[in-house]
Specification:
5-stranded mixed beta sheet, Diaminopimelate Epimerase, Chain A, domain 1, globular, 8-stranded mixed beta sheet, Urease, subunit C, domain 1, alpha/beta, 32% helix, binds zinc ion, 493 residues, 17 helices, TIM Barrel
Length: 493
């Protein structure tokens, strides 16, 4: 038994509801004490002093691509290099991952010579195994001769023009990712688990696969969940409901794209882009495709998960959900992932449905506000319809918090802060509601689980320990308890 003391244990039952001490046994919460004075003097338990911290039910990030995030963290980071010599020296010491060498974050403009290393230089540094060096924005890359030989180029022959850009760069990157062996895949998740813990997370939902690829990677993660300190909740990113059933997954889909992104003008809008009047993005699939997908998942009792960003895409998926739930009412939380640009029509369609929206408050912090990316692409009017959290919550949508890591960092505290400070004041959440995105609501989304999200007797003892209130400007992650075990506590000697 462990007794955690000297902290404010926020139950998440009501905004100010809290306890003074928490007693853990066998990974569950055995007792909560309103006042320290209630603790029996003869209690035999290991006492852990939390140094005045604020303690919450373990934070969950409900939308990540953790394999990519973990993999990037293991790659050689060339961001600190300012000359070709430094780049070559760093590359010569690269630690291969699953028989491949990855390097990224090369900022050619910061290199004295102003260019990528050439083929001869790369071959000298890494002669035997395929190497990829990615530019800081990820849109171009350089490879060595071993990679030129190994990649099965669609055109039939190795490209002559280096560095690689656009389609060729994507082709090379995709091949490198697909070639990571099982050990490499698991090391990427190991790294992701470590990064998640440091960010104060105890559970992480992760999208696996790229839409239609074979689910080998999903099976590997599913069969190794026990080895990680954080709980991964894997999503098979496929649209084949039967396959998801065979895999034993209670959900199907993930970032299955109903449209693209605002930054690349591919999010489907109801009006033209402010800065590209000839374009309004495109719906990638017709209504009927999504209806068949969601209806089949619904019938089988699986959560259907779809990526929708632009107003027209969110309306399309909201319309599908309305139809499916009306035909067969069930308390299944189908997910509109991102649910970024929301029209009044979408709010009407979603009103009263058990639909869920895993949202990314960090997007608003990065792109909201005057002169931000939303305003540039969508105009002032369009900007005001982004990230309508308060409206969605009022319509009864289950809002949960996520980072879309690797797009933004794993940072639940940053997400909580951003949700309380949205650029549109009318859509801001209260601190309590914002913290619920990462606790109570996240637990509801993981349907199978009813012992998470609150600090209650009998619930799992997963705790996120913060130096101050979750929404506080200066609050930082102090520690994490997983299944009753203190995994780390900063400042503890
Ligand atoms: Zn997405
Ligand atoms: Zn995503």
């Amino acid at each position: 038994m462990r007794l955690f003391t000297n902290a404010r244990f926020c139950s998440m039952e009501a905004p100010d509801d809290h306890y003074d001490a928490l007693l853990e046994k066998g990974g569950s919460i055995l007792r909560l004490y309103r006042r320290s004075g209630e603790i029996p003097a003869d209690l035999h338990a290991e006492r852990i002093d939390l140094d005045g911290a604020w303690v919450y039910p373990g934070f969950t990030d409900t939308h990540t691509h953790s394999f990519d995030g973990g993999l990037y963290s293991l790659c050689l980071d060339l961001g600190g290099c300012s000359s070709l010599r430094q780049v070559i020296e760093a590359l010569a010491g690269v630690r291969p991952l699953g028989g491949l060498a990855f390097a990224w974050n090369l900022d050619v403009h910061r290199i004295r010579e102003g260019r990528f290393p050439n083929l001869t230089e790369l071959d000298r540094a890494v002669p035997d195994i395929p190497l990829i060096v990615k530019r800081v924005d990820g849109h171009s890359c350089m490879v060595n001769s071993a990679a030129l030989r190994a990649v099965p180029w669609k055109s039939g022959s190795a490209p002559q023009l280096l560095p690689l850009t656009r389609e060729l760069s994507r082709e090379a990157s995709a091949w490198f990712q697909s070639m990571v062996d099982e050990e490499g895949i698991l090391s990427a998740y190991d790294a992701a688990s470590r990064i998640a813990l440091k960010a104060g997370l105890t559970r992480v939902h992760t999208m696996v696969g790229d839409g239609e690829s074979d689910p080998r990677h999903f099976v590997l993660l599913r069969d190794n969940l026990e080895r990680f300190d954080v709980d991964f909740v894997p999503y098979p990113q496929i649209s084949n409901v039967n396959r998801a059933l065979e895999l034993g997954s209670p959900r199907v889909g993930g970032c299955l794209l109903s449209d693209g992104s605002i930054g690349s003008h591919t999010a489907a809008l109801n009006a033209p882009y402010a800065d590209q009047p000839e374009s309004r993005g495109t719906l990638y699939r017709d209504q009927d495709f999504w209806y068949r997908f969601v209806r089949e998942a619904h019938r089988e009792g699986l959560q259907a998960c779809v990526h929708a960003i632009g107003e027209a895409a969110v309306e399309q998926i909201a319309g599908v959900l309305r139809r499916v739930y009306d035909e067969d009412p069930k308390a299944l939380h189908h997910q509109i992932i991102h649910c970024e640009m929301v029209s009044d029509r979408s709010l009407e369609l979603l009103e009263g449905l058990p639909a869920a929206a895993p949202v990314q408050p960090a997007f608003d912090a990065l792109w909201g506000g005057e002169g931000g990316l939303y305003e540039k692409h969508l105009g002032k009017e369009g900007r005001a319809r982004c990230n309508r959290y308060a409206s969605l919550a009022r319509a009864g949508v289950l809002l949960t918090g996520g980072s879309d890591w690797y797009i933004t960092p794993l940072d639940p505290l940053g997400g909580i802060r951003a949700a309380t400070r949205l650029s549109n004041p009318a859509e801001r959440l209260s601190p309590f509601e914002a913290i619920r995105l990462y606790t109570v609501n996240a637990a509801k989304l993981t349907a199978s689980d009813d012992r998470q999200g609150y600090l209650r007797e009998g619930y799992e003892c997963d705790l996120s320990i913060v130096s101050g209130p979750g929404e506080g400007e200066k609050s930082a992650v102090k520690g994490v308890v997983k299944e009753g075990k203190l995994l780390f506590l900063r400042g503890r000697t």
